[in-house]
Amino acid sequence: MNKKYLNWKKLAQIMIIVVVIEALFLLGAFHQINYKSNNQAQSVTDENVGEITDGVDVVQTFKYNGDYINKISIKAGTYERNNSGTVSITLTGDGKKIADNKFDVSKVENNKDIVLKVNKRVDDKYNRYKLTISGSESTKNDSITLYSNSKGNIHDGKLSVNNKSIDGELEMTVYGDNIRYIGKFWPIFFAVFILIIATFYCVQKKRESLGKKSILHNLFYNLERYHFLIKQLVSRDFKTKYKRSVLGFFWSFLNPLMTMLVQYAVFSTIFRANIDNYPVYLLSATVLFSFFTEAVGGGLGSIVFNAPLIKKVYVPKYIYPVSKVLSTAINLCISLVPLAAVILITGELPNKAYILIPFVLVCLIVFCIGMSLILSSLMVFFRDVQFLWSIISLLWMYATPMFYPEDIIPKQFHFVLTLNPMYHYISFFRTIVLEGTSPQMVEYVYCLGFSVVICGIGAAIFNHTQKKFVLYL
Question: pTM score, two decimals?
């Protein structure tokens, strides 16, 4: 420990990086930091209000006891006809227009929701709102029908068609939020986080100066000494995968697309009606889960397959599984390109929440490193691990809502989703690309928690067993 790696310049660089990360997090997750979900559930359908044709005005008044309205969804039916025309939806509060939009009736699917995006703070709690739905350029038997509940009155409002009152209310859901008062203290939380990092760095710097064991010193030492080797191993693994392949790394584009097309052809007729933008829903899960299985599958054999090199040259053995995961991460980045193309083609536009995507990708990579450390250690002593992993990964895939909606899982088995790390990573990613917003704060805890815990367990197991590797290789 003669060379000193920890200095005040490096601390300043780390602090700048931390502040930038916090600023990006605040930009992408500002709404979730300041608000918590408060949705007003829809009622159960038992009637309808008739077709929304020219001259038909449906008015639904309702109360909403929240501080922010994200969107309003209204259930519609097409009776499987090729309808035409447009439907206009306007939301007003106390006589002031809050949001409005027009919808092409021909693009409305049967028994699907028409969604009016609002995304606005509402002035006062318990205000009465009015939703006006009007049809145009459509005739009888050529337009959509709105569903209603003749008995329920969850939204505490009144329903009318052309000024004629109707019992019940529309089948609709108001999605909104209440203010998180804890959100006012986020500057304090961020400042405390920065202080903790600075304090930890100063403690490590003091230990380094006294010649004692320092975690940060060892980290920077290994990065400086072995970064070239890691770079070469990652490059070797990436090039070897496509050696003598005509299309080369272009397969990183094709693999997720072809997998999605096969799954789409098989499952779209079963689940498409229950899932919005099914192609993106399916491909986003395919890309992330394919990376997971490939990274861990490659990492588990990294020690055994590099046995000749391990016996001849000393390098930290953890470099081999880590380099396998990092080389596979290159494929992940390439696979995101066709995913981005599908997202744009299906009409999902990028937004500021996209800056949170690196968070979930880094968490997933760290999780895969932890899994690779665990399985590569076990693989040295039990060669059957590679065969068991192929079965476990297959079961894991079916236990994760990749091609089916998560709401088909019975409530008594929802704990399986809670304990499934891949479900949280995929759900986090889908929330960003499909809903255009940051996931709830608890999802950050799940994603980061699984990554840190599994990586920590993997490092502990690997460190405990690596001295015996040479006896079994």
Answer: 0.80
